[in-house]
Design a protein that fits this description.
This protein has 322 residues and is of the alpha+beta class. 44% of the residues lie in helices and 11% in strands. The N terminus is likely disordered.
């Protein structure tokens, strides 16, 4: 890494890279430790909720509670949970700075209470803290963390889907909790941030299911783990239905995602493409959209992930304009 980097280079792309390349301990038996990305997700959540307002991150009860909530969903059984570990070691990643208490004796804290005795607070690079005030930057950074750290490896779809399933269960529990306690002040906001994470997992799982190809045109372009040209798209929009099941998803390139959302094409009950008949197209270097009319889309290998007919039907009725 170039240590002489100018501060103007510390933009969103820079921090996405830092988040993707966190120094974590890895072993063959236990895989990567996920403490650091879980701590980052927890802090971003508290910033989104307005609970952390200044660039001083204390070892607060809120932070411990949020970290534990995320750990329940994303942590692995093969690692011990513990906020002290990532809080202490993030210093080595360059954007995190611990301010130690004056009487600190110098030994590495082994519990969260010991951490409180050692560290006054931590702060992030100001550039990063400022970026996190913006909702879009927050989403991008959450996406990066989820894509890199919580997708397991590429051959391990089961894990991704399990995470997605766990999220569904947690969301349900949270809704029940806020309904019974009437704690409407904090739970829904926590839920909103949580759903951003859940959406990131959904998108990742859907494109993986389709092998990173567009179901419409089969296009596949990948640059690295976090950048590829297809989107995991919702068939029935998330904003209306909150449906993050894989079978409410379809993998589409940017162009065909947009066209699908505009209702320029739909998919029938036999998974064949129906293209609106009023498109004016020129496509000297690729097939036109109309040329795909009545072709079958690319389908996932596992039946349980096939686009749900009920969702496709809803899209034909409510979005598609023939
Ligand atoms: Zn496409």
């Amino acid at each position: 890494m170039n240590t002489g980097e100018e501060s103007e280079n510390k933009n969103l792309a820079y921090y996405r890279k830092r988040f993707a390349e966190l120094n974590v301990s890895r072993t063959r038996q236990r895989g990567s430790a996920h403490h650091k990305p879980i701590l980052l997700l927890s802090i971003i959540d508290l910033i989104a909720q307005g609970i952390i307002r200044d660039n001083r991150i204390y070892v607060s009860d809120d932070l411990v509670k949020t970290f534990n909530k995320y750990w329940d969903v994303l942590g692995s059984d093969s690692h011990q949970r513990g906020l002290h570990y990532p809080f202490w070691h993030l210093e080595s990643d360059g954007f995190w700075h611990n301010t130690l208490k004056s009487g600190f004796n110098g030994s590495k804290p082994k519990t969260t209470n010991k951490l409180r005795e050692a560290v006054e607070y931590a702060s992030w690079d100001n550039e990063l803290f400022n970026l996190l005030q913006d909702q879009n930057s927050r989403s991008e950074l959450i996406d990066t963390l989820v894509a890199v750290w919580f997708s397991s490896n590429k051959d391990d779809l089961g894990d991704i889907l399990q995470v997605n399933q766990d999220f569904e269960n947690v969301a349900q529990t949270e809704t029940e909790i806020s309904a019974t306690t009437g704690n409407l002040d904090t739970e829904p906001r926590f839920y909103l941030t949580r759903s951003a994470v859940r959406n990131a997992v959904f998108r990742k799982a859907v494109v993986h299911t389709y092998d990173y190809k567009c179901a419409f045109c089969r296009l596949k372009v990948i640059r690295n783990l976090t950048q590829n040209i297809v989107d995991g798209s919702h068939i029935k929009p998330f904003s209306k239905f909150y449906d993050n099941q894989i079978n409410n998803g379809i993998s589409l390139c940017k162009n065909h995602h947009w066209a699908f959302d505009q209702g320029w094409f739909a998919i029938d009950d036999n998974y064949r493409i129906i293209v609106a008949n009023d498109l004016e197209e020129e496509s000297p270097n690729a097939r036109t959209m109309k040329d795909f009319h009545s072709e079958t889309i690319l389908l996932p290998t596992l039946d349980q992930y096939l686009p749900r007919l009920e969702s496709l039907h809803w899209h034909r009725l409510n979005v598609f304009r023939a």
